[in-house]
């Protein structure tokens, strides 16, 4: 499953306030924040699962999937490469 993901936002302060309010009913809270980034996670666990970072809104995003071990990481990578999608590089 998805372990964590990060997006860039142009209006950082406004987005941090928005997500703090919008995610609270879902049991998601602000775990940490500084002037450039903020991390959110479930109230019931210490992990950060969703990050916002100050940047341009059309920047790339970062999505990380969980793996139990190196074998799964290798299989995931090989599976992606075998799809022959031009975006992926070894």
From TrEMBL:
Source species, domain of life: Bacteria
InterPro entries attached to this UniProt entry: Glyas_Bleomycin-R_OHBP_Dase
Keywords: Lyase
Gene3D superfamilies: 2,3-Dihydroxybiphenyl 1,2-Dioxygenase, domain 1
Recorded GO MF terms: lyase activity
Listed name of the protein: Lactoylglutathione lyase
Organism: Vibrio parahaemolyticus
